[in-house]
């Protein structure tokens, strides 16, 4: 029971004395289960779109998640501080993110017309602070974290706490003198994150990820498996391999065709643009086709080739090209560069200043078909090297279900996931931009190496509800629940019931069991419905057998119930909540 001790704080509450505004009907704008239940059970209320108040029950759950985070951060050697939410634009401009984050950054001006942002993240602030305060290698490595409200001006806030404009986040930062030191801290944080989400009871995967606007490399996302997740996870059915679909490498050995080369043939394909349309018109399988797409990078156009049944992965493409930006060329740009409409372009006869790169699958293809760079025309019997050249072969396609796992164990399956945590090896990017330097053992200045580690605390709360619910309401895991026991006096006007309920209320509290006592003068059906909706792990009902000292004990998780004498109750409840 020690993990539930409250340091002298009496964890009990009477329903009549708190704010739990439950709803019978589901709000019309609540699309997903967690949003619906957190509103109906009286845990949260929306103030404006994407901004929520945490009511007493919601705040308790939030604090319980924070408690787990703090305990695991301390085990990983991190110390807690608190940074300002209001941040000067000067720091963001030094790293270039003032412009890169665009309208997502909440911006404002003070009375002197100075520019500020409400903190979406704190890399700039912490790097500047450590750069000013830490000057010697003797103070490194250093691991610091905070739990704070963050702000992002989401274009379309949705799914309740999963995508809001104001949310609670834990962000940690580590500072090092060597890559080895960073690697060690990264492994500690990786373990801490696994412990945090395991203690929250979640079914999750740690997946290889893309660093995106954060910069750096070597990064993992922690994904809670859920059908409403906005990310797709590729994972092995026989091993621990898991990656965001954008980052999963393709490890396929393509068998080279041994068919003889056929003569190149130009054919009319009037009005047929997509691979599926051309495939059906030519009566050839899509895997015989070469899909050609024109992309714009930082400083040039690139034609990208994949097999007809594969899709270009723009994250892999960006990384393969070593560029910061990559986007599909518009129809007008494609027409201007290749003199043909989208859907009719191909690698044969492409002008020399357009680089042609291909996915590895292209090298094994024979007698394929592709666009002819003439509107409504395609080539048949196309063969690489004979008919066109490739600048380089790269892994630039999305992995598919059924592909072999990159680790050589099993095959790839897909699942949807909710991102609740993300860890990065940032390297020196922020430290170089903001002058975070230290004196090494020889007295020479060197730039610090950084790591960054974030958890969406309020998002984790919503993810828990997505996994722990049934048709009647929420089912809170033990370490997260706002109270461990829901005590109900069926008829508080009955003195025997009320007296026994009061006795149990005091006994449980004296044994460090947290209790929500429903003492309202409501119908039993309302109390039981609210109890299932709120979802505390154990319900004790004081009813008709109160005169015998008998109460009903019911588990929210599986509905199991038993009658217990009050003298045996504390011992039984203690065993249940362990």
Fill in the keyword field for this structure.
29% strand, 3 domains, globular, BirA Bifunctional Protein, domain 2, YbaK protein, 578 residues, nine-stranded mixed β-sheet, alpha+beta, 14 helices, six-stranded mixed β-sheet, Rossmann fold
How many alpha or pi helices?
Answer: 14
Tell me the β content. Answer: 25-35%
Count the E strands: 32
Percent helix, as a range, is: 25-40%
Per the CATH scheme, the topology name of the largest domain is BirA Bifunctional Protein, domain 2
- CATH architecture of the largest domain, by name, is 2-Layer Sandwich
How confident overall, as mean pLDDT?
93
Query: Structural class, please?
Result: alpha+beta
Q: How many domains?
A: 3
Largest sheet: 9 strands, mixed
Uncertain residue segments: 1-10
CATH class of the largest domain: Alpha Beta
- Specify Rg, calculated over alpha carbons: 30 Å
How far apart the termini lie comes to 6 Å
Q: Shape, please? A: globular
CATH superfamily of the largest domain, by name, is: Bira Bifunctional Protein, Domain 2
List the helices and strands and how they pair.
Layout lengths: L11 E3 L18 H8 L3 E5 L2 E4 L1 H20 L3 E2 L5 E3 H7 L1 H4 L5 E4 L5 E4 L4 H11 L8 E10 L14 E11 L2 H21 L4 E5 L8 E9 L5 E6 L5 E3 L20 E4 L6 H8 L7 E7 L4 E7 L6 H8 L5 E2 L2 H8 L16 E5 L8 E4 L5 E6 L9 E3 L17 E16 L1 H6 L2 E3 L5 E3 L1 E8 H11 L1 E2 L2 E2 L10 E5 L5 H16 L4 E4 L5 H11 L3 E5 L7 E6 L5 E5 H12 L1
Helix pairs in contact: 1-11, 2-6, 2-11
